[in-house]
Amino acid sequence: MTQKPPATIRFLGANRSYSDGAEDEVLAVLESAADRSDGSDELFRHAVDWPTTYHFSPRRSNILRPFEINKHHRVLEIGAGTGAVTRYLGERGADVTALEGESIRARAIAARCSDLANVAVVSGSLEDFHDASGFDLVVIVGVLEYAGPATSDRRHQLDFLRCASDLLRPDGTLVLAIENQIGLKYLLGYSEDHLNQPWVGVEGYPGRPAVCTVPRTALTSLLAEVGLPAQRWYYPYPDYKLPKTILAEQAFNLPASTELVDQLAGRPVQDLANPPTRFCDDRACHRVFLDAGLGIEVANSFLVAAARRDAALDATTDAAAVAWHFSSDRLKRWRRSQTVRRSDGVLRLTAGPIFPDASRAEPAWLGHDPNKDEEFTVGRTLEQEAMESSRNFDLDGLAVVVRRWHALLTERETPPTHGSDADIPFAPRPGRSALPPEYLDASLSNFVDSGDATVFIDREWRLGSQVDATLTRVRTLWYFALDLVVSGAGHPFGPKTAVNDLAIRLAKLAGLDFDQGLIEEFIADEARLQEVVTGKPAQRIDDDLHAVGSISRTKKEATANLPVSQIRRDLVQLDGLLHGMESQAEDSRTYQARLEREITAFGSGMAKLEDEYRRLEHLLKSHEIQNREVTVWARGLEAQIQEVTTWARNLEAQIQEVTTWARNLEAQVLAAQTRERALIDEAAEAERASARIRADRTALELRVVSIAREVEELRTWKQRALRRPLVRFALAFHRFFAHEDADDDEKAPDNR
Q: What global pTM score does this model have?
């Protein structure tokens, strides 16, 4: 790639200081690198610790690979860091604006994207950034948690998202990635990524630190509140920083989803920055949450596409996709992407190279076929079955699985072809049988029990014309032993059993005879193979594999705190005795083999005893809890009985009062009825008297009328009589004599 000067940076306001301490080194590497492209092998070689891995790992850009992004999109990336995702967006042809608050990081973006004319770099805060044209896509990866201190109303995150959503065009989409506050990683005691303390987020961020993540329900509400109710959720594993697998939400809702998600996600937790002491099996814990329907709630990270309406999401997301898996920890030409889609109720798997234009030059002895288009084989893998038996300390069940796998390989064994493959890693050694070249990766996870048969899947690699059947088996069992140890899975061989020793014991269960010499042979060949695939020096890989082979499940101080640790220490001591006896004279070999079988049987018995002890201990604790609950319930019931008794007594007194009142009321009712009857009688008598009075009044009125008529007639007669002279004379004469009589009366004495 032709080196060009860094692109111009537009500065807004003051520098927002944030640093992980690697910025100067990262900037120096980017300014001197010849290949700064997405997934650059040159940059990948500089990933030597956690900070440089974060800035240079090719897995960084996987977080956006599920989305359709092209030259027709105008994209804003907020908090672009040193440009790992920015470079991917630019190579997709989009018109990209990278906004970064830390100036030295902005310089790193400019250096990384110096040859991309479609990428503009702005150094400043979101509050100071304005753009009238708006964006089709706003990308926020690992930034929302820095929006402000933790508060109950999450107002700082809300303000940040509102500013970001205001920059979207009407049909634009916001893509956001962030850790889950209650993710499985944090629930199991891993340190919080930003504060380097365990359980601080699960406790609700006491003290209100400046950085905080969010759970799923809170993030759903925040996005809806800023006007982005249309949402599609995805779940990156092990997290959004370096995703290997991304699951769509529908993966958790399919039939047998626990098996499917466990198969696709594998180990659900990884922490390269702060590797913890493991106290439990991360993968087993994940399965418990999946069985409970809580897988999406405890995912370590969220990846959300949000918009104002569903139609906008259809343009950038694949609604049929169930999962994406990326094989990225390889050189560019070997990297592969796999996608599982669901159509008409059937899962289909397609695969292809992530970088189809990368140079395909490769050693003649190493074949690689990344392409695939076939129906997804549904079922449990032999790895899942072996894990289950191991977790249950079931030696017999574990033996059945590894022997079945061993038998499947045996069916394909052939005599070796001599000569041409002698210098090829994993080529058949003299005197050993061979397997077809695609059986190099015959891991337990590549055998699926579909119900009708056990199917060998994913034949991606071919090595020469044949591979050594013994070394292929060593490779599979060694990597399975490594998975058991690093995942913290329980197994019947004791928590202090190292990877190499565990692989040998697994081989014996399968009926194979492995020793440390075979493991050394495997490590030498694996280092040569991985040098070609990853580009790392073979000696460095050899040293790493030797170091890993000596690790065990837990540290001594952690083992002492585990349940029934005394039984496990006894088993470890017995294992030590077994190794000591194996170093004795040849004539004791038969006796030692018999003793080993007895010890294995004893280990199985101890495992069963341990399970029974755990069950009884759990039952005892359950009974104690139930007894406490019953005691509290009884006390509460006694108090309630006292309250009911008092209430009954009060009710009885009230009943007596009501009875007395009822009797008084009854007497009053009887008196009222008597009075009512008397009043009715009086009313009837009054009515009769009234009738008589009305009759008398009528008669009187008739009499009055008659008298009036007589008076009128008298007046008429009087008037007629007065007109006669004789009558007038008589009246005058009467008045005269009446007057004299009156005078005589006044003079007469009173004779009364």
A: 0.73
